[in-house]
Design brief:
Radius of gyration: 30 Å
Strand content: under 5%
Shape: rod-shaped
Low-confidence stretches: none
Helix content: over 70%
Mean pLDDT: 77
Number of domains: 1
Oligomer: single chain
Number of helices: 2
Largest sheet: none
Structural class: mainly alpha
Distance between the termini: 86 Å
């Protein structure tokens, strides 16, 4: 009977150890995933606002005629 309890204690010790290791690895994978998302989003962000202001009048003039056109609904 004592041998069974020794095996149980060893199994519980190892299970606790593996549980901590698995939680740390899962946390590390979450950090890597968030870093990949942040890098991906940073690459597709629009240019700074001062660069967009130069294009604004051209964009408004380009879209204005399309606003005045009447389209048939059917």
């Amino acid at each position: 009977m004592r041998g069974a309890w020794c095996e149980y204690d060893v199994a519980m010790h190892l299970a606790t150890r593996y549980k901590v290791i698995s939680k740390l690895l899962f946390f590390a994978s979450l950090i890597v995933a968030w870093a990949m998302v942040l890098v991906g989003v940073a690459k597709v962000l629009p240019p700074p606002p001062h660069a967009a202001l130069r294009c604004l009048p051209v964009t408004l003039c380009w879209r204005q005629p399309s606003l005045l056109q009447i389209r048939a609904k059917f």
